[in-house]
Each structure stands twice: as structure tokens, then as C-alpha cells.
Design brief:
This protein is an alpha+beta fold and 136 residues long. 57% of the residues lie in helices and 15% in strands. Strands 1-2 form a two-stranded antiparallel ribbon. It has a two-stranded antiparallel ribbon with strand order 3-4. It is elongated, with a radius of gyration of 24 Å. The structure holds zinc ion.
Amino acid sequence: MNFRDRSRRFLQGRYGNDGLNVFLLVVCVLLLVTAMFFRGTVSYILRGAALLVLILNFLRTFSRNREKRARENAVFTRIISGVRSFFIRQFNRIKYIKTYRYRKCPGCRNHLRLPYKKGTHTVKCPKCGKSFDVRL
Ligand SMILES: [Zn+2]
């Protein structure tokens, strides 16, 4: 059996790569870059943490428990999409500051984009239908 067959057999049924693994690699690189700015114990701790993160990445990549790894990635994706939409919302608040204002619905906490007209307006939430007063 040559190397190609052996590596193919080794990788058969393994989980592989996903978004969480990419994130773990980024964390590993960030820890190593941060470690360059320190000396002594702090540098050792940061490099050790980077090594642990890298080991975790390898264990996830070559794991045979594919369902469990997929569930971990689903939780990670849910968290990251929430963080991402928060930053996109903040970016849009600044980008459209002259034309829109963003408010939260008191009924369902849905984010509403309202056209900017000074004064007090009655707004009806398109998601839950609750009407409330907004001062812009
Ligand atoms: Zn609502």
C-alpha cells in the first residue's frame, strides 16, 4: 500500500474543516502574534494557549464523531451570526444617519429602520403589529 492509499484510508470518515476550525486557526495566529510583543511568562502562556487551540483544531478536523462536530459548528455559527448582525447594524446606523433612524420594537424587540423625520410619530411594527410612539 503506497502513501496515497494510506492517507486516503486515514482521512476516510473524518470530519474535515468547517467555520469553527477556521476561527480556531485565526485565534491561534492572533495568540502567536500577541505573544511576540511579550517576554517571559506571558509569552509562554500565550504560546501554550496557541498550541492548545491548534491541538483542538486538529482533534476536530480528524474526529470521526461527525454529528457532534457538526452540532458544535452549528452553535458557533448561531453565535457568530448574532455578533455579525450586531456589527452590520452599527455600521448601517452610521452609514444612513442622515436618512434613517433605528429603533427597537417594545413588543417583540425587532429592529426597525425608520425614515428620519423630526417629531413624534406612531409606528406600527411589521413583525408583531404593535403600535407605539417614537420621537425622532
Ligand atoms: Zn414588534
